[in-house]
UniProtKB/TrEMBL annotation, chains A, B:
InterPro entries: Homeodomain-like_sf, HTH_TetR, HTH_transcr_repressor_FabR. SUPFAM superfamilies: Homeodomain-like. Residues 13-73 form the HTH tetR-type domain. It comes from the Bacteria. This is TetR family transcriptional regulator. PROSITE patterns: HTH_TETR_2. It comes from Streptomyces chiangmaiensis. Keywords: DNA-binding. PANTHER family: HTH-TYPE TRANSCRIPTIONAL REPRESSOR FABR. It holds the Pfam family TetR_N. Residues 36-55 bind DNA.
DNA sequence: AATTCCAGAGAACAGTTGTTGACTGCATGG
DNA sequence: CCATGCAGTCAACAACTGTTCTCTGGAATT
């Protein structure tokens, strides 16, 4: 069943991943729309033409990067929203989770923040699609909460979208604060916590 | 007092503005970091070398675009926050104002959304600086509200930042919906309104 | 009226880019 | 063991890039 793929395909996936990694690295100080195909292959140490064996274009590579950056994040998000504990505990855990994720995958986070409104349409589309999925999943998870009794589907989706956007903004702020002093990161964490508290309070009194 | 500047300087400012306008136009389908100096001068119909008479580099031009896009927005924002009327009226007016602004200056809005996290550091910095000014001004305006009695300075700044970020996200969503059907724009307006309502409720019960 | 100044033109530079077609070596499947 | 498939190479292409230096026409200053 577990098909060990041959030496052939293994090597191919290795260069493919090397291309993705190199691209992600180069994107730390430029946007996808200015990333050159030759630039990427040069960084990997491979002929420019080899690029075409893996991707049709840079935009295509970008879409795959979106998958890599966001695809594996769905379970993590869902479990965070569905977590138990009182409101403040859940918020603290969520903020901490975001901080850890930014620390572990700064390049991915930067890529998503940058290309969400970036100059490459298919990539924007891919990100938009993944974020819409997040919102939908968060909405479903929120609907499970007893506190969501009486909420309309539209209002739940509005709240879910707000949480998703908030998550992204917080991640991006952690990223900006990453090279700065530790107190700056602390400030970001505190502000994010307060924002989530305020949203939580609004949610609690929504039905009045 | 009103110094009419000579034919000489008038012509210079004219080409300068033409360069800014052309750049903004070209940026509708790419990012600043991939915008070429020759591309801009070609669009204006001027020699590539003429560019240097006005800007040191594309990044420099980008910083000036930030000024053009956000510099004149301060009074509008402040008056919106300080507006009278009940909560829902103020929210409706704010959302409407954002919608009109996006309609009137779509390219400026796109530029800010795109380059806020874009690949050109000085431009990111300039945007960050202007947005920090917005937050500070909104904070001061919020402090005037009777509802802000008992709020700490930090919490007020947190709320102000939330409003500023929300304004930007709403503007960007209106932009995405611009080419779509009118119902889509209506949906964006409704969601933005609901988000502001929720934040307003959270604000109202903050002190509990 | 004579002089200075300067926005813009023009040509040339060394590099860079994406894409093509034909190739080679080696893992794969018969 | 041989034939096929295919990841990666290589050379060449036309087109493009940012930046330099030199020049010029006409407005601004004296």
């Amino acid at each position: 069943m577990s098909h060990t793929l041959g030496v052939r395909q293994a090597q191919k996936q290795k260069t493919r991943q090397a291309l993705l990694d190199a691209a992600l690295g180069l994107l730390e100080e430029q946007s996808l729309s200015s990333l050159g195909l030759r630039e990427v292959t040069r960084a990997v140490g491979v002929a420019p033409t080899a690029f075409y064996r893996h991707f049709r274009s840079i935009a295509d590579l970008g879409v795959e990067l979106v998958e890599e950056a966001l695809g594996s994040l769905h379970p993590m998000i869902e479990s965070t929203v569905s977590a138990t504990g009182d409101s403040d505990e859940r918020i603290a855990r969520a903020v901490d989770l975001i901080a850890r994720h930014v620390d572990a995958y700064p390049a991915h986070v930067r890529f998503i923040a940058r290309e969400r409104h970036g100059g490459v349409q298919p990539v924007r589309e891919a990100i938009r699609h993944q974020l819409a999925r997040f919102s939908e999943e968060v909405k479903v998870a929120l609907a499970e909460h007893p506190e969501s009794a009486g909420w309309s589907d539209g209002d739940l989706l509005m709240l879910a979208g707000l949480y998703v956007d908030q998550m992204l903004m917080t991640a991006s702020q952690f990223l900006e604060a990453m090279e700065g002093p530790a107190e700056e990161r602390e400030r970001v964490a505190r502000t994010a916590t307060q924002r989530l508290r305020l949203v939580g309070i609004g949610r609690h009194h929504w039905q009045d």
